[in-house]
Amino acid sequence: MEIDRLLEGDTRTLAQAISAIETRQPGTGDLIQELFARRAGAGSPSTQIVGLTGPPGSGKSTLADTLTMLWRAQGRRVAVLAVDPNSPFTGGAILGDRVRMQRHALDRGVFIRSMGARGHLGGVALATRGAVRLLTALGWEMVLVETVGVGQSELEICEIADSVVVVTTPAAGDGVQVIKAGITEIADLFAVNKADLAGADRVVRELRDLVRAPREEGVWRVPVIPTVAATGAEGVAELAVALDQHRAHLVATGAQQSRVERRLRDEVVELVGAAATDFARRLLADPELKLLPEDVQSANPEQAAEAILRRLAAEESKIEAANRDPAVDHRRSE
User: What is the DSSP letter of 221?
Assistant: First the structure.
């Protein structure tokens, strides 16, 4: 049985389940719900979801690899979801720096999956939400989501992760440049990676000035931690400790539950939007409907959208009518 294999830790079955989520195959939601039900009361540790984001070349993959090694030394199971850009020609994920994480290939306590961003400007695919929920249902202690790293669009990760680590480097310039990147507000922690390079002290100092201790009691102070992920010799252990401290802060203040509830609402909205998009594309591709004229210059997108929405409402009415039909209820009970 697939659920039994998933609970036994079969990585091939887990990879297949994530593929089913990516392609939005029916039944994946029921599968995850059943997994949560099977594990209820099992006393398994809760899942900590960590997001790594920042500009390309900041060393996110190396930092993810080093954090994975550290967490494994602590006995934690680690799942890494690396969201990569999609090839504009094949649609497949460009694996990028994933090669350097192959040292964990034979470790059953580590699961690594590359996922295509599929055009999401936020650097995180809709399927990533479902994959995180699946891994949570299976009781993985640490789920690390590494985003594409595309500057100003790296905002969606804060809607998925419990703790967001913004990775920057001395090469990124001063603290003002980090603000211009548009990602300062989403940081729960800053990692100034490649801290052995010239200028690192200045970047750390300026970032700490930007995120001074809040005056309100009980408000999280964003730490700025210099790291050298390539060697693991500096800062990575401190970063891991700070992540645990942030998790404890979220639980103590009740913010953790609020983030979980927000994630669920956002995922529902995105799933509905994705389904509506697929519905609209099918109708637009139907040559009999001719929702758009052959002369595209005279096309009226608003009118076509209204026609699609009317058909969507009609489909919804049919479903509601079928659900109210006593004959349908009788057939379901048989």
Answer: P
